[in-house]
# Entry
Amino acid sequence: MRMFRNDYSEGAAPQILDALVRTNDEQCVGYTEGDPHCERARALIRAEVGRDDVDVEFCCGGTSANIIGVTGMLRDWEGVICTRDAHINVHETGAIAACGRTVLPTTDADGFLSPDEAERVWQFQTSTGRHMTRPALVYITNSTEIGGVWTRARFDAICDWARSHDLKVFLDGARLGSALTSDESDLTLSHIAQNVSAFYLGGTKNGMLFGEAMVIADPMLKEAFPYLVKERGGLMAKGRLLGVQFEAAFERGGNPCEAGRSAAGDTDSTTDGAGIASHGERSEALYWRLARHANSCAYRMRDGLVELGFKPYGHSASNQQFFVVTPEQERALAQATGCETFYVLDDGARVVRFVASWATSEADVDELLELAGTI
Amino acid sequence: MRMFRNDYSEGAAPQILDALVRTNDEQCVGYTEGDPHCERARALIRAEVGRDDVDVEFCCGGTSANIIGVTGMLRDWEGVICTRDAHINVHETGAIAACGRTVLPTTDADGFLSPDEAERVWQFQTSTGRHMTRPALVYITNSTEIGGVWTRARFDAICDWARSHDLKVFLDGARLGSALTSDESDLTLSHIAQNVSAFYLGGTKNGMLFGEAMVIADPMLKEAFPYLVKERGGLMAKGRLLGVQFEAAFERGGNPCEAGRSAAGDTDSTTDGAGIASHGERSEALYWRLARHANSCAYRMRDGLVELGFKPYGHSASNQQFFVVTPEQERALAQATGCETFYVLDDGARVVRFVASWATSEADVDELLELAGTI
Amino acid sequence: MRMFRNDYSEGAAPQILDALVRTNDEQCVGYTEGDPHCERARALIRAEVGRDDVDVEFCCGGTSANIIGVTGMLRDWEGVICTRDAHINVHETGAIAACGRTVLPTTDADGFLSPDEAERVWQFQTSTGRHMTRPALVYITNSTEIGGVWTRARFDAICDWARSHDLKVFLDGARLGSALTSDESDLTLSHIAQNVSAFYLGGTKNGMLFGEAMVIADPMLKEAFPYLVKERGGLMAKGRLLGVQFEAAFERGGNPCEAGRSAAGDTDSTTDGAGIASHGERSEALYWRLARHANSCAYRMRDGLVELGFKPYGHSASNQQFFVVTPEQERALAQATGCETFYVLDDGARVVRFVASWATSEADVDELLELAGTI
Amino acid sequence: MRMFRNDYSEGAAPQILDALVRTNDEQCVGYTEGDPHCERARALIRAEVGRDDVDVEFCCGGTSANIIGVTGMLRDWEGVICTRDAHINVHETGAIAACGRTVLPTTDADGFLSPDEAERVWQFQTSTGRHMTRPALVYITNSTEIGGVWTRARFDAICDWARSHDLKVFLDGARLGSALTSDESDLTLSHIAQNVSAFYLGGTKNGMLFGEAMVIADPMLKEAFPYLVKERGGLMAKGRLLGVQFEAAFERGGNPCEAGRSAAGDTDSTTDGAGIASHGERSEALYWRLARHANSCAYRMRDGLVELGFKPYGHSASNQQFFVVTPEQERALAQATGCETFYVLDDGARVVRFVASWATSEADVDELLELAGTI
# Structure
């Protein structure tokens, strides 16, 4: 059975892999420095975000993107405000500190950075002048660590707060595809691009072998990125690989096919294809179609599990779904579905995570549900 | 009136200053590297702590000592567990992160690092292996940021916890003099020296112009200190200044005089001198006498303020005393006594700090109390 | 015409790419943490180097490997001795300094670190104790920046020197395949593995999309690597990609086909295949066959250019070949062949580099020579 | 006999020490943050350098000043060009790298950074864009490591070069007093202040217990200094100590006495006093008088040694004097005078250094010369 452990268990979506194979013999200059694929991908992304004045740069993965994005907008004594469960605060082995900068976590527990908590941290950190790390940046993630999807209102609130305090905003978009194609998202890519200092379009968790595309409006980071990506080890010699993948992800029209593995590999892709087609955007870029497909599978899974009596943890309208289960269920589900345990609650209950991706099919979900019904 | 702002408002205690003046014309090799004063101070401190096998090194100040002590016992991806109000977490402008290491704060709110909270942080940080900063060190402060004095039982508990988890222990002793001469302390210097990996005897806040003496049992820090103190800018060219001051502070017998400015400068030092003498250790080193004197003034102040109806914040048996006051009282007291505001409580009340030092006299305290009685 | 700019102009060798395609749909745990491909690749590499007690780890690229390998074996105040043209000293944007460590270049001008120069630097750096960066590591590259191939005698000399000074040795193997298959190399992989603290088998420049495999004997780096690779952004979520590629590169027997693109794509691969076959190791791992093929093309190119009257710069028996040309020749050759300029000599002459790779065919070389004959 | 080992063998010049004693009992706010002595010292230094728009900040020592000044004007991937013997390149245990920045040494062998060599390094470092550390700052020292005094022409040449390449200039003034009062200096303090981005007036080596005063014109460093000095451990709690010392050093008129220990302590200060008086500036600040006195002793020593047949190494018109001696002479001189060995020349000859300071008297020099005559 297909596991629901995470969205980076497989290789690449077939369309992405195909592009890599198709272009494999081409000779390109290295390091993303002007090869036609990177240049085309840059143009496509600029068009997608609706700004000509942004820089588009690539790096090898999410931690690399966070290192460069965050430290590239901070001076030595400055810090970044984020939620306590933020990836940079928890899951990157102190990567920001390793580059000499300080992470300033709030107590927000739902994954969304709130203006109130940001204000509290800011007040505290600026209360004794140069004796404390000066906040200069806000870090948010869409979707959040526990699958939350930012609404426009919520997004505007934190951006407004940051602007009013002269702080920059960095958006970690490792799962931005899933977030923006969520059926509960009213936030658009261009609105994000208009309001943050920098953000990235995650590739690794949305059907690419690897790679993230950074969109940079901030002048300080525009200057920093090309150097930092090399200095911090995130620059790929065969930079064309990033170009080729993002080109395939954002090229429209030329790839009018269905999304993901299920569509490519299944003999019966009608339902799935129809589901995507019903959205009415045949020319939608592959990047969005892959994410939309993952969400669609995640909703089917979520609704099915709820129907079976499983209790959701929080509310997610993205490709990660969290449920509260007993330790016995945890064991059985982990074994059968690959789901991972995120938290142990005070009463001993477990929060487990199921993740759908471009590679998940409806049939996979149905198999999961059938199995879960027996646990 | 003498202000009670902090314990580093004046220059040096007269005995320390005198030693500097007396030795001013001597020629010494630089950098604490073998001049007779540093060597003598090292020997005195080794005797004081009761261990021949420790290294004793000097640096210019507390932040420098914390940088060297903490980062010298951590590898790049390791972190230090401490309370949320720890100096290294709050008041040093991200100095530990600036050296590439991560601070891992607990939620302990009383300044004492508890084994329970340390265990919680440790469990969390080791839950996903190399994706998270690995805790390798525990940082405690005696006295704590809000004046708390570690008991032996409490100290043993955290040291035992650390030992059982194979973590090292670093004790920030910026105010260790006041802590160990507290009338509520049952902890001894030699017991500390037997149980921590490294600690320092703070000079800056106990009557010296500047300087801290690090006592090092840990082999990793023994190797690191000489290099780090230079690399991190904490090594003084005129290293003898540190030797001279710590020599004066820990030489016994030769300095049978009373402690501090009040004793040296006041015409009427009988009471004060008697108070010290009554402790029955005429040969006690100046370092302890200065601290004991500061505590004595602090208790007189504390008891007097309580008698006047002021409400203590927490309980301090050291030279820093905290009180809860109204905003009106805060303003009047700050103006009159130099006390600083530490916290604004949820109900709007203020926590202010009064600090006594070697330079405080009983008369100063009485003047403070008289004034406070009118506020 | 195929350019001779570098050995990372194309994607992957067909056998590598094929392995990626073939395994694309498999689900694997992430981060190189135990998936079957990484585990198999580790076992193959351990067998290849002839040591069971080494750790084998993977990261995304050469700069990443250098960052982790070098800083993982240095404490904060320690430095690495290398030649002045070493990649870490010149072409990595200060990556080692960015991690807080110091590069200590010698004046060796031929790319080989000599014991004499290492001794000079060591003497100097240890002459004033802790006031200077302490050398703790030696960094060498095989093949060198200008194509030099280390002999066993030369290699033993620097390893002996390092051992006698209690320094570790790190070997940057970005082009180790080409070096060890050079017809002038008498050095073996197992001899290297027996004598250095750590080294890596470069994938990026030998037919993989990306990736380097670090072989670690040193206990300090064994402990460090898993954390540093995450903290420094070099860990890939889809770690299996590294496993799959190195598995394909070092699996024997199962891949009895010819090396590289030319063999795979050319209709007439007889000569090439025969050339490889004549080496008498049909079961030689793909990694070596790809490199041997690159060398073979490079020699043909070198000999042809010499015959045409071009003057070699230094002597290279590896896949990079350097020639001294006039500015006019430089322009014409760069345009026609993609060769890059490395140095401008004092007399205004240029040193240009031609690089052959797994993707180069004999026909490509002949085309180059024909063209060069007209310049 | 007084040793000539260095200019930081003694404590403080009597006038400085006296100021510390005189102000010892005053209560001041900490951290150089607004106490009257720091404020007065700032005003005096601004007047001395002839610019109202500079920031004047203090830190505990020279390495600290170099760390803050250099890294405060560099972004993460930028580097500083300096001579190979520059203090930051050799004698600070990799302090700049420890803060993540790269030192880019030239091959200038005489201590003076030349535009030609700076240009060569700049050309090289900018030849492959972001793959190499970008030079952004020039670091010079006056007087140089081997006692050289910058002329105005030389100084203007390097500043012009830096300006034309959009690089900043940092001047390490650890011995700026000696340099500017040299009888061969035609450079003025105000000219320096008009042309560099930042520099410091060294206190440690010119009669203070410790401390350097940074004069900052550069906006980037103005913003950085207050934070970096705390984050890097260079901020003193008793900041007033720095204020008091620099106030005493730059206050005019009120201190019409002679310079240094010899003048203060010798019964016969006539000659010395006359020598200073003859310069015709009775109101010259103590800072300059101390330095001028050190130079005067150094010249007497130099001329005397030359007369005795000793051979100078290079030419110094400042308080450090270098001579080439035999190994036998080296031993005898080191023992008798404390002189230190700087270099061992290729022929086995030694370069030894004699240093005069505010604490040196004419009688001390004569004693040295008498002794040297017997060696």
Remarks:
- Chain D is about 40% helix and 15% strand.
- The domain at 14-250 of chain D is CATH 3.40.640.10 (Aspartate Aminotransferase; domain 2).
- Chain D has a mean pLDDT of 93.
